[in-house]
Specification:
The chain is built from twelve helices and 16 strands. The protein has 327 residues and is α/β, with parallel strands linked by helices.
Length: 327
């Protein structure tokens, strides 16, 4: 008789941290490059239950070979209670059974930040580095200490449309970001001479523009809409994505195609490498120190499954969460 373990937000937070997240992200990308961590086909399924009085659901499945687990992200968007309704269902390959349900709210933010940080680490020139961070939300709060831990950060410039958000963010991060930080309300000044630009916002209009990236700079776009103007890609020597299909649908890639700058075919042809290929050395991230690189790193279900599977096993070791017998 098996057991189903259910992990709450507090359970997940007790078994994952910045260092563990960075390690899991690296291992999962290496596994993906080897063909052992794979996404379902199609990578996502949407169910719109609004016509019958329900919310909108999304299901995303993946397998993570090195953890011998598969899983399904169960996402709903009913409004303010969404943080309590998103879970990752994890299956253990060894027992062919559902082994747990893991709360996704913080876990998803943590894995998004970790995959962005390790991807950026594989693309930037050696430090010390000036980093410009657009955004002061939940994922930005996770990635700031990761960037400071993974990179030689000389200065972290934080920019947001509201000055109070920048000041509050810097104050909150001062204990865990061991690098100089400063607020820069002018986005163009934040990008000026920056070695790495990370965009993590809900902005529907571009924040980074053509002619603003210095030679050798990397822009890592992680938002859901259009944060990077198309001329930035036109000027870039290299183009890296984490998931070619999803990148063509959401975020900047989807916007560039909708705007008519690219077709799905020319978008795919423009990609120089996947982030996992760069991380494991199968393909180069840059060909020269002066290469400007555009990277679309939006996160993949393999990350959620890897983080959830690790959390379940660590929770079982510590006897955390609720365990329910399966008859």
């Amino acid at each position: 008789m098996g057991q189903l373990r259910i992990l709450s937000e507090s359970d997940v937070r007790s078994v994952l941290d910045t260092s563990i997240a960075l390690d899991l992200a690296r291992r999962t990308l290496v596994d993906q490059a080897a063909g052992r961590s794979v996404l379902s086909s199609p990578s996502a399924m949407v169910l719109d239950a609004k016509p019958v009085g329900g919310p909108k659901f999304k299901f995303k499945a993946a397998a993570v070979g090195y953890l011998n687990a598969s899983g399904i992200r169960l996402l709903s968007h009913p409004g303010p209670t969404a943080m309590n309704t998103n879970f990752c269902a994890v299956y253990d390959h060894a027992g062919y059974q559902l082994s747990g349900l893991v709360s996704e709210h913080w876990l998803s933010r943590l894995r998004t930040a970790a995959f962005g940080a390790v991807s950026a680490q594989a693309l930037v020139n050696p430090g010390p580095l000036v980093v410009a961070l657009f955004g002061t939300g939940g994922i930005a709060a996770e990635i700031a200490p990761m960037l400071a831990q993974a990179l030689d950060v000389q200065e972290l410039r934080v920019t947001s449309r509201q000055a109070k958000n920048m000041d509050a963010f810097i104050e909150a991060q001062s204990a865990c970001v061991h690098a100089p930080m400063r607020a820069e309300p002018d986005g163009r000044k934040a990008v000026e001479d920056a070695d790495l630009v990370v965009t993590l916002t809900e902005s529907p209009t571009p924040l980074v523009f053509g002619g603003t990236l210095k030679p050798g700079a990397v822009v890592c776009s992680m938002g859901s809409y259009n944060e990077v103007d198309y001329p930035v890609l036109a000027e870039a020597e290299r183009f890296i994505v984490d998931d070619a299909d999803f990148s063509a649908e959401m975020g900047d890639g989807g916007a560039w195609i909708a705007q008519g700058h690219l077709t799905p075919a020319t978008f795919d042809a423009r990609i120089d490498a996947l982030a996992c290929e760069v991380l494991c050395g199968a393909k180069p991230g840059r060909l020269a120190p002066s290469d400007r690189i555009v990277a679309l790193i939006q996160g993949m279900a393999i990350g959620d499954v890897a983080f959830a599977a690790h959390a379940l096993r660590e929770a079982e070791r510590r006897d955390l969460g609720r365990s329910i017998p399966l008859d």
